[in-house]
Design goal:
The chain has about 350 residues and is an alpha+beta fold. The chain has 12 helices and 13 strands. Helix 3 crosses helix 4 and helix 11 (about 315-325) runs antiparallel to helix 12. The protein is elongated, with a radius of gyration of 25 Å.
Length: about 350
């Protein structure tokens, strides 16, 4: 097969001529030749695999800029391109689940069924909770902050010269919501509080404190659900039915590399830039976008929020064992901090644990 007209190539690739012209303009799929007199575009058969890959990726909703990266990778390393596609779709599913939870929440609120049909009211449950921090055995000061209350669980990990103030201010801003924000306003309240904290960090940064900021992970209960706000690499875990799952996604360089398939989780633990944050409350408008989602609470749930001073030195098996066996949240917090210290305590450590129990 020789050169193909744009119409013939469109039929073979399952892309429209209009799309082909757009992809040419964007540099995503340039024709093999453009007639200098007529301006007609001509393609060759060897371009069909790339064109068909573009068509499939558009059908799954991948952004054009990301499609270009995947197609370039496909031409040199097809298995790696497959890993990138898989990581992209896993992220889409996570974001879709968060949006589904939000839609359900809004439907319940607007229909006058704030707890959700068939879901036990939060008023029939209560929270048992505890929180604690430790400076660790290496750091000169403790920049972690942890809080646990009847409706709020929060952990923040400060950094920079003014990190302790930043983490404390972030948690204090959320504590103010514990009694004042309920129902449909809970997500807006969390988002507004995070924005105020980030703006305060920007306005207050000067001199040595200019590179200061904090991560933040917090849960605020409303009805039979919790609203989760998360930015940075503090984490939230859930113990349910004997199994532990992580319900936050780290905003770090190494996590983005894991998502792209260029790094394994095992390799990430020793990566020299494993502490580099892509999002944090550091005063920058570009870096402060938090994840906001809703999560159903079930009686018997145990939640753990913690800083990286815990999970980078205490393995997942030990975390699961403590969460599954500790009698109450206070015991769980004490045991987890003790494990971090026994592992060398190279960083500040903060934990907050809460149990959902029936009244």
């Amino acid at each position: 097969m020789g050169e193909l007209t744009i119409g013939a190539f469109a039929r073979a690739s399952r892309l429209s001529p209009k799309a082909l012209r757009l992809y040419d303009e964007l540099g995503l799929l340039a024709p093999a030749r453009v007639d200098g007199t007529t301006g007609y575009r001509y393609y060759v058969e060897a371009q069909l695999p790339r064109a068909r890959l573009v068509a499939w990726l558009r059908r799954v909703g991948m952004p054009l800029a990301r499609i270009g990266e995947v197609c370039d990778l496909y031409e040199t390393d097809p298995p790696a391109a497959g890993l990138v596609i898989g990581a992209y779709w896993a992220r889409v599913e996570t974001e879709t689940a968060a949006r589904r939870d939000l839609v359900t929440f809004l439907v319940d609120q607007l229909s006058g069924n704030p707890a959700g049909k068939g879901v036990e009211q939060m008023s029939e449950m209560r929270m048992r909770y505890a929180a604690g921090t430790d400076r660790g055995l290496v750091r000169p000061v403790n920049q972690d902050t942890a809080y646990a209350g009847s409706r709020l669980l929060a952990v923040a990990d400060g950094f920079g010269a003014d990190g302790a103030r930043a983490s404390g201010a972030a948690v204090d801003a959320l504590v103010a919501l514990e009694e004042s924000v309920r129902g449909a306003d809970v997500l807006n309240g969390l988002a507004d509080a995070v924005d105020r904290v980030n703006r305060a960090n920007r306005e207050g940064s000067s001199g040595d404190s200019g590179d200061s900021g904090t991560t933040l992970t917090a849960m605020l209960w409303t009805g039979s659900r919790l609203a989760l706000v998360h930015v940075g690499d503090t984490r939230a875990y859930l113990l349910r039915g004997g199994e532990v799952s992580r319900i936050t996604h780290d905003h770090t360089l190494v996590q983005s590399m894991i998502d792209a398939g260029s790094l394994t989780a095992e390799e990430a633990t020793s990566h020299p830039r494993r502490a580099l944050l892509l999002r944090a409350l550091d005063g920058s408008a570009d870096h402060a976008h938090p994840d906001l989602r809703l999560h159903d609470v079930v009686p018997g749930d145990r939640y753990l929020l913690c800083s990286d001073g815990l999970f980078t030195v205490v393995g997942p098996d030990d975390i699961r064992r403590v969460l599954a066996t500790a009698v109450d949240p206070a015991d769980a917090v004490s045991e987890l901090i003790a494990l971090a210290l026994a592992a060398g305590g190279p960083d500040n450590v903060a934990c907050a644990v809460a149990d959902a129990v029936t009244v």
